[in-house]
Write a structure and sequence with these properties.
The protein has 325 residues and is an all-alpha fold. Helix content is 75%, strand content 0%. It folds into 2 domains: 5-78, no CATH class; 93-324, Orthogonal Bundle (MetI-like fold). The protein has helices spanning 5-30, 38-42, 49-59, 65-78, 93-128, 133-147, 150-164, 182-220, 223-230, 235-265, 267-272, 278-287, 291-319. It is globular.
């Protein structure tokens, strides 16, 4: 029995809603089961009496755990996450998260789009030329960068660029950024964004290339591909219209998983290049024991994975007829 797209979306939305609710619950419990007094965790050391009273009332720290949980859910659904208690002391967590996440989305969005585009192309070409020099060189390149730790490659780029050129390697913009015109500001931000994007692309392109190559090689050995050749179809037509649509099914799943994880996985690149995105914020919040910031950052990164997988499920429904049964 074939299910409609509307019914499939409804089922997946219920799954997403339940999963996000469980993530929120775990996020609440995580900081309550740590080996420390939650009051001391959420109230900064040396805080004034006024600050202690305000934070105690906001988080309901003098209430039973079930009451605190209800308060937490209410604050989460209304976007009221409180204030940073150490790293950006006194600033609203909601505004801080929005600012830093926007920067990460720019980095991750550009980097992931380029990684997917070139990764699929390279994976396709190496699979189509399997066993030839292009395939051997390409496969070696994929494996090297797939196994290389992100921080190591980023540090290597930073060291080489700093040693042999004057290209900006730290931060999001130059010291004289405010004095530039609009085109100058765009060019300045582009220069500072280039190295982090390059590091992200090289590190993630290998994953997409390896999956595309493996999937396409499996498809090219199927009987219907032999039939297509027997019918006299051109090689490029077989690759484009028969092989690639079927080979893309596992690629879509891997893309969704990586898109979600890259949002948090970019932390090493952001820290090394001092790019102040969500990963950098999470790193500094952990070092500063800024639990309100950590709590929201963890939840946002987990939700990103769930949403990415939801989008992948919709794509698979459109691409794979077996999902509709």
């Amino acid at each position: 029995m074939r299910q409609s797209f509307r019914m499939y979306v409804l089922k997946r939305l219920i799954y997403v809603a339940v999963t996000i609710f469980l993530i929120m619950s775990f996020n609440f419990l995580l900081f309550r089961v740590m080996p420390a007094d939650v009051t001391r965790i959420l109230i900064p050391k040396g805080a004034s009496n006024e600050t202690i009273e305000r934070l105690t009332e906001f988080y309901g720290l003098d209430d039973p755990i079930p009451v605190q949980y209800v308060i937490f859910l209410k604050q989460t659904f209304t976007g009221d996450f409180g204030e940073s208690i150490s790293f950006l002391k006194g600033e609203e967590v909601s505004s801080v998260i929005v600012t830093y996440t926007a920067k990460t989305l720019m980095l991750v969005g550009i980097g992931t789009a380029l990684s997917i585009f070139f990764g699929v192309i390279l994976g396709r070409e190496t699979a189509w030329r399997r066993g030839k020099m292009f395939d051997r060189v390409g496969s070696s390149f994929f494996l090297i960068f797939y196994c290389m730790p992100t921080f190591l490659f980023a540090l290597l780029i930073l060291t080489m660029v700093a040693s042999f050129s004057d290209w900006p390697i730290k931060g999001e913009y130059s010291a004289d950024y405010q004095h530039l015109d609009i085109l100058g500001k765009l060019a300045d931000r582009g220069q500072h964004l280039l190295l982090p994007v390059f590091a992200l692309v090289i590190e993630t392109i290998a994953t997409f290339s390896i999956i595309t190559r493996s999937s396409l090689i499996d498809v090219l050995t199927e009987e219907y591909m032999v039939t297509a050749v027997a019918k006299g179809l051109r090689g490029k037509d077989i690759l484009k219209h028969h092989a690639m649509p079927n080979a893309m099914l596992p690629v879509v799943t891997v893309v969704a998983m990586n898109v979600g994880w890259i949002l948090s996985g970019a932390i090493m690149i952001e820290v090394i290049f001092s790019y102040q995105g969500l990963g950098y914020l999470t790193y500094r919040a952990v070092l500063s024991y800024d639990y309100p910031l950590i709590q929201v950052a963890f939840m946002l990164e987990a939700v990103a994975v769930i949403i990415a997988n939801f989008i992948a499920d919709l794509a698979l429904f459109a691409l794979d007829p077996r999902v509709k049964i």
